[in-house]
Amino acid sequence: MNALPAPGAGSIPIAVSGDAVGDPWGADEFEARLRARESRYHIHHPFNLRLNRGELQPFQVRGWVANRFYYQVCIPIKDAAVMANCPDRAERRRWIERMLDHDGRGDYAGANAGGIEAWCRLGMATGLARADIESLRHVRPGVRFAVDAYVNFARRAPWEEAAISSLTELFAPKIHADRLAGWPSHYPWIAPEGLAYFRSRITLANRDVEHGLEIARRWCVTRERQARALQILDFKLDILWTLLDAIALAYPDDLAPELQP
Amino acid sequence: MNALPAPGAGSIPIAVSGDAVGDPWGADEFEARLRARESRYHIHHPFNLRLNRGELQPFQVRGWVANRFYYQVCIPIKDAAVMANCPDRAERRRWIERMLDHDGRGDYAGANAGGIEAWCRLGMATGLARADIESLRHVRPGVRFAVDAYVNFARRAPWEEAAISSLTELFAPKIHADRLAGWPSHYPWIAPEGLAYFRSRITLANRDVEHGLEIARRWCVTRERQARALQILDFKLDILWTLLDAIALAYPDDLAPELQP
Lengths: 261, 261
Description:
Radius of gyration of chain A: 19 Å
Helix content of chain A: 55-70%
Order of helices and strands of chain A: HHHHHHHHHHH
Largest sheet of chain A: none
Largest interface: A-B, 24 and 24 residues
CATH class of chain A: Mainly Alpha
Strand content of chain A: under 5%
Number of domains of chain A: 1
Distance between the termini of chain A: 42 Å
Oligomer: homodimer
């Protein structure tokens, strides 16, 4: 059975499912169960399928990029929240790389400008003005609510649970690779340098996943914690899915031209 | 009149003092008022006076170092909390330097090992074992409560207010310089390389103060906010002072040898 979240409990069920009873799964089985959640990854969302099959009109791609930007700007805030709950210097030393990846580092030029800037460049490559993106004016309420649920979870949960919630990165390399493979022919009007974000994330996601799995294995020493890890991953998968629901609803094929980004 | 904090309000008065009424002070007067709070800095605490006059026995110096270590380990957690509340990437890019200063960066060797490690080396130079320091076993409850109040404030306050609370660094270069000047003759039994932390902080404190004052000037656009900034600074000064109260009480001159660190 799947428990429902308690009201106000940050969308994570506080009762645990039947899975939670018994001996802990072995490390391999636990990881396999985490990886099996791929079936719920937003790569399978109808909007993403259309996006990656090249079926979207430019304004729909722009709407997606402008809304997803809200997720991008919240990521380093989420990562700071993880570190603010983490008393282990060795873990913070690894986790801070995620903040530097997104906010930028060193001279903040080129690839050093970080993931938020790279996403902004993607947006501009799709025809959005920088101000349209950075003002967040296209961001739909449903997108805000979903992303904010993620940040608030990271603020309040043990840092290990917040780390586990980032494990949707398990499935990210494929979604980025799909975009890199398909977009140049599907959307030739997008300047290819706009896709740099996707390229950079493939390596970084693999590094992050390795760290995330390490934390999950160490933290989930009981079956109850393992089952909770799966629920946390489901929660994060719901966030990504709901984000696309809100975007799909906002940008139907026949959207009036004056409402198109 | 000075308002008292509301119960559970994180030790910061929520009612504001008579100072809070009127036109905002000019930037220079506001800064002068912040700087005038130096009179409440723990540099004037009886325990610090004795420490810097060379009047303490080795176990008292060790007790101070071991307890103050708790403050050191909490600093990057506090800084992550500031960033977790800060939506401005440009500000996070500056603030993250503080985390890197304390947790370390790059190869984490030598000076790159960061401020927590530098403090640990200071502790070892005073004769403590690394495990004595890192286990936090000498840390007194009063020290924990005071430092935790600081971290909890940073978690819950607007990030600009948390930044203002760090402005006790205005007064830090002098306290570090005093130690560098006096300790080698007062405490010749402490290996001089143990003092590297104090040396490093003089430059870094000046950089941090510049950033902190910039934030305070920008945030405190009303007299009410300026007065609150002074109260926040007082709160932080109280934390540092209370920390020394707890340490002084724990390590009297005639402490039984078996209780001496």
